[in-house]
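Why do we bother with holo predictions? Because pocket geometry can differ from the apo form. Keep that in mind while you read this record for protoporphyrin IX containing FE.
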Amino acid sequence: MSTPLLRRFSFLERITHWVVGVTFVVLLLSGLAFAYPSLFWLTTFLGGGAAARVLHPQIGALFGVGIVVMFVLWIRDMFLDARDREWLGAIRHYVAHDSEKVPPAGKYNAGQKLFFWVQSLLGIVFVASGLVLWFPEYFSAGLLNTARLLHYAATLGGGLFLIVHVYLGTVAYPGTARGMIDGKVTPAWARLHHPRWSGDRVDH
Ligand code: HEM
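The structure, written out:
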């Protein structure tokens, strides 16, 4: 007899998330290669320095489209409510894996919701400043400098958040990544991490 599972993410949600995830990592690595001469070898993966210069903004455009689709798909579930504020108040128990003391989360916990808003905001900063840097001939030197600064700051923030996000979704909470791979999670995982969420049952 097969154990019933719960549908966590649709095919469209997963494809969109992975387009965003993969493009973001490629952008991060190629961006670091442009910023630090000692990391220039990273451009090899995109066919060398000249190719990377051309590809970086084009991949950035794909990332931008992905972020917009992800935003539209998920915004409905991402507004914080009073229970999310309780969850934030008990975040130390979540960090300590003391799940009995963590107020029950819905489909997303407050940390995930905040991550969604932060990454969406950073997405706007990346794309807006990236467009300015892509077409420098249309902008003043002052605006170009501001765009460069914002692009770097967003990289730092987005990169650090990404490390935490990947750690939480893989190492820290086993069973989570599966929801983003084949779209399904076990009922035990859902009860432990998202007790107020009841996903649709699916077969194996
Ligand atoms: C590249 C490595 C990445 C991995 C391994 C990863 C993993 C995951 C996993 C497993 C989930 C599902 C969490 C759940 O079911 O509760 C998720 C959700 C999500 N991911 Fe990613 N992700 C990655 C990259 C990204 C990037 C680059 C972004 C945005 C710029 C992003 C944004 C999100 C958002 C907004 C959610 C929903 C809220 C949340 O779970 O935090 N992810 N990710």
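The mean pLDDT is 95.
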